Amino acid sequence: MFNPLLNIVSSAYWQENSHPQNCSKQILSWLLDETSLTKKLEQQCEKFTVEVKQQLNTNANESVLSLLFPKSEQILVREVFLHCDGVANIFAQTEIPYHTLADKQKNLANIGSESLGKFLFKDKTLQRGKIEIAEFLIGSSVHELCDSLKQPCDHSLWARRSLFYIENKPLLVSEVFLPASGIYK
């Protein structure tokens, strides 16, 4: 069943290399960490799992997408929750242009409940672009998502995004740190 895509990429002001006023050093250390988030979460819990919310094909001109890819481009969008011990810690949305899914990368379209990070960080050609961060204020669509997960919160939530390149082919990964992630303590 198709659910509307969560508007995280185009509904926020994304900034790179900055230290926002109300972002603690603890939060910023997670946001700017260039290592595998999957690996980091696995070290923090007994059981790490990925729940696929949805995966669909659309055009780059979909209003909630990043606009980083040509409007005529077909895009595979994958939305998942990264769980630690059964609790959603991260909401991730990935935009993969069809031309990225050629050759060895075609398997990215069929990883199911496997972690995308495991595939990305194993690839020797992987390059990561700059990390951009965004703040979601109370009342945002991200907060509504948290309410639906029974994780209401009374503070801003933070996200990061970056382009990854595999054999010089791009994909965009955006990650929202949910209240249960523990970075807000």
Structure description:
Strands 1, 2, 3, 4, 5, 6, 7 and 8 form an eight-stranded antiparallel β-sheet that branches. The chain has 185 residues and is α+β, with helices and mostly antiparallel strands. The chain has helices at 25-31, 37-44, 116-120, 141-148, and strands at residues 15-16, 48-59, 74-84, 87-97, 127-128, 132-136, 157-166, 169-177. The chain is built from four helices and eight strands. The mean pLDDT is 91. It has one domain: Chorismate lyase (3-Layer(aba) Sandwich). The radius of gyration is 16 Å and the shape is globular. Helix content is 15%, strand content 34%. Strand 7 (157-166) and strand 8 (169-177) form a beta hairpin.
Count up the domains.
Answer: 1
The portion of residues forming beta strands comes to 25-35%
Count, helices: 4
Number of strands: 8
Regions with pLDDT < 50 over 5+ consecutive residues? none
Which structural class best describes the helix and strand composition?
A: alpha+beta
Q: The CATH topology, please?
A: Chorismate lyase
Q: What would CATH call the architecture? A: 3-Layer(aba) Sandwich
Q: Major beta sheet, specifics?
A: 8 strands, antiparallel
Report Rg. Answer: 16 Å
Quote the distance from N terminus to C terminus: 36 Å
Pathway: Cofactor biosynthesis; ubiquinone biosynthesis
Family: Belongs to the UbiC family.
Enzyme class: lyase
Keywords: Cytoplasm, Lyase, Pyruvate, Ubiquinone biosynthesis
